[in-house]
Amino acid sequence: MLPARILIVDDEAAFADFLRQGLTREGYRTTVAQSAGDGWDAVLAEPADLIILDVMLPDLDGMALCRHLRREGQAMPILMLTARDAISDRVDGLDAGADDYLPKPFAFAELLARVRALLRRSGRDGAEVLTFADLSMDVDLREARRGERRIHLSPKEHDLLAHFLRHPRQVLTREILFAHIWGDGYEAESNVLEVYVRRLRRKLGDPELIETVHGVGYALREAGS
User: Fold this and answer.
1) Can you tell me the mean pLDDT for 43-56?
2) How far apart are CA 201 and CA 189, in angstroms?
3) N or C, which end of the chain is more exposed by having fewer CB within 10 Å?
């Protein structure tokens, strides 16, 4: 079965490209539309398994497009994004037919978790179990193990380890890790990343499993690899 296809409808080109690249790295097929009209045309050309829809669009707002999709019988999950986070705005989005509502700014890890949850609910995605060496993680149950030993992680520790497990042996820069785990609310110069890496090393019981690549970032590697 082909990977799930995600349609991103957002007129902010840089932001849409950030989402496209991140979702593509996670194995999804992605398409970007920069207007409601282009989004509708993209759905007609090839139905999406999930739509990430921004509220503010140049031709028609995202809520109107969401209502149109539902009226036309399009039942795929819709995750609505907006800079407006008032409760009334969220209610309006859900009433328009959206399945979930995520205010900006957000951590990319949270977006991914919501995408996976929506795809699971729609029957398009199965359980995700990540493995590397003797380390394993059931993403849905949020359980990590080293061999038979269960590792108790905080939510941020879980998200950080999951990202390492999805990209084993790759050097992940500080900027990439901050964008995916903490979003725009933290500066890459902060030492919060070092603190969480140190905690993970301690809980994993192996300081060499997460290697420091000086001046760049970190990589999940087996000792000696």
Assistant:
1) 91
2) 21
3) N
